[in-house]
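It is worth pausing here to work through a concrete case rather than discussing structure prediction in the abstract. The textbook approach is simple: state the sequence, then state the predicted structure, then interpret. We follow exactly that order.
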Amino acid sequence: VMTAARGTDLRAPLQPGLATGAVIAALRETVPGPGPDRHLAPEIEAAYALVTSGALRAAARLP
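Step two, the predicted structure:
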């Protein structure tokens, strides 16, 4: 999910679809985007929690 979000960032100025944009926005509330080098394990764990909790599915408004 983190890699997909970054890939979408790199496609600017193109905009993602509504559901994809909502998922990226929900992810970015917890997991920051690119920046300086840092230890990514906490961010990977946070992204994993968002996926397994269903939060990203809810953000996309999928059943």
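Step three, interpretation. The chain has a mean pLDDT of 95. Residues 18-30 form the longest helix (13 residues).
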